[in-house]
Design brief:
2-methylcitrate dehydratase PrpD, 48% helix, four-stranded mixed beta sheet, 2 domains, single chain, alpha+beta, 60s Ribosomal Protein L30, Chain: A
Length: 455
């Protein structure tokens, strides 16, 4: 195997729970609480129902690894469970986010690790260790190179990260972990077309598919399959496609792990719209909607490019496009004083009041905001009223950003809010406590039983 693959395999081999700081353990628990909250909130969405039905068609032979689909009694293969559960985590676009040179949603891979942990009857500490390891690989790759501008989407990072975390749970040797990384990378390059133009249901499934591919690669490696020998550095490898880069990984007992530095979301919207929604909610009490003549949304370059450049963002026809539209989410927040999953209903997508505010809007890049991104994800909204007055509000970083983190109480409130209508208060609190106590759990399956629903 090439040097990069060997370093990744060595890193995964050496990763142990005993080397994790209390901060990393706590952040891992927060990530899992957030992921389950997102999944529960999306449980009844049509795409999530389809994913569960699809996964039901896969059954694990007797004696083979098996995992459950969250919220129901179906047992399936670990890779099918990774996909179905991962779609639920990702669908509402309110799970965590990380960006430096590239960007993505590292918790997309949590479903794969949980599925493998369940299949091998792992304890909570093993899952926490695998999750922290996988985050280091995923986020380290985001730090290393901008693949998005080259036309690639980051779920292939997720496949490699998930393969290594899953391989750790499966007890793979160092050599097998290297094979798993290669088997995850080479067959599973993903195109950025997923997030361009009119967005389809695949937008919420691509990350889950990365988790599925990672689990599948780890299982192949355990079976004895070998991967391409120079997946990163060889002829036709990743470096030939995207350019040479150095994937830096945390080293040393005091190193800060990536899972402690990711951003969480308060609103179900593309991360680049989090500050815009927060700013709109701040400015709303200062102006009457009927008095608005013009809305200027000032943001950093990437926010404008991804959420306000394509014509589809100015007339979204799908939920997936609307939650990636700066003018749409600002208009909805100004009208309703909130932004929730209901903001993207079929009725709201054709609401003439939202369309009217969108027509009064424009989005502009603010160069100083672009210069400070991604350390800051700023937004400034200027509203000119029919009487000629100008009202301005600005947000430096949305709540949930690594520099302005959600408190544990905020995270618990998010979890409880999504649990309403899904199960009882007792079920909610029991599951929440089990996740906070995950380091004491002897078998992950015991926690997953608490998420079951009788609906």
């Amino acid at each position: 195997m090439d040097d990069t693959t060997a370093r990744l395999a060595a890193y995964a081999t050496q990763a142990e729970y005993t080397g994790l700081s209390p901060e990393t353990v706590h952040a891992s628990k927060r990530t899992l609480i957030d992921s389950f909250a997102c999944a529960i909130g999306a449980y009844d969405e049509p795409v999530c129902r389809m994913a569960r039905e699809f996964a039901k068609s896969y059954s694990a032979p007797n004696g083979a690894p098996a995992a459950g689909i969250w919220g129901c009694s179906t047992i399936t293969t670990p890779e099918a469970a990774a996909f179905a559960n991962g779609v639920m985590v990702r669908f509402l676009d309110i799970n965590d986010m990380y960006r430096k040179k590239s960007g993505g949603h590292p918790s997309d891979i949590a479903s794969g690790l949980i599925a493998v942990a369940e299949a091998v009857h792992a304890d909570g500490r093993a899952l926490i260790n695998a999750l922290a390891l996988a985050y280091d690989v995923y986020c380290g790759a985001c730090d290393a190179i901008d693949v998005n501008s080259l036309g690639w989407d980051t779920p292939f990072f997720g496949a490699v990260a998930c393969a290594l975390g899953a391989g750790k749970l499966l007890g793979l040797t160092r050599e097998q972990l290297g094979e798993a990384a290669a088997l995850a990378l080479v067959p599973n390059m993903t195109l950025f077309q997923t997030r361009t133009g009119d967005l389809s249901s695949w937008k919420g499934c691509a990350g889950a598919n990365g988790a599925r591919n990672g689990v599948f690669a780890a299982l192949l490696a355990r079976q004895g399959f070998t991967g391409p020998t120079a997946a990163f550095e060889g002829s036709g490898g990743l470096w030939d496609v995207v350019g040479r880069f150095d994937l830096a990984l945390p080293t040393g007992p005091g190193a800060t792990r990536y899972i402690t530095r990711t951003n969480m979301k308060c609103f179900p919207v593309c991360y680049h719209g989090q500050a815009a929604v927060r700013t709109a909610l701040q400015i709303r009490p200062r102006v009457r909607v009927e008095d608005i003549a013009e809305i200027e949304i000032g943001a950093y370059k990437m926010a404008v490019e991804q959420m306000a450049t394509d014509p589809s963002r100015w007339a979204p026809k799908t939920r997936e496009t609307a939650d990636h539209s700066l003018p749409y989410v600002v208009a909805a927040a100004l009208l309703d004083g909130k932004l929730t999953t209901h903001s993207y209903s079929a009725e709201r997508l054709v609401d003439p009041r939202i369309a009217g505010l969108i027509r009064k809007s424009r989005a502009v890049e603010v160069p100083e905001f672009s210069a400070r991104y991604p350390e800051y994800a700023q937004c400034r909204i200027k509203i000119r009223t029919v009487s000629g007055n100008t009202v301005v509000a600005e947000v430096d970083n949305p709540k949930g950003h690594a520099t302005s983190p959600m408190e544990d109480s905020d995270l618990e409130a998010k979890f409880r809010a999504f649990f309403e209508g899904y199960g009882s208060n007792l079920q909610c609190e029991t599951l929440l406590k089990a996740l906070w106590d995950l380091d004491k759990v002897r078998e992950i399956g015991d926690v997953l039983k608490l998420i079951s629903s009788d609906r």
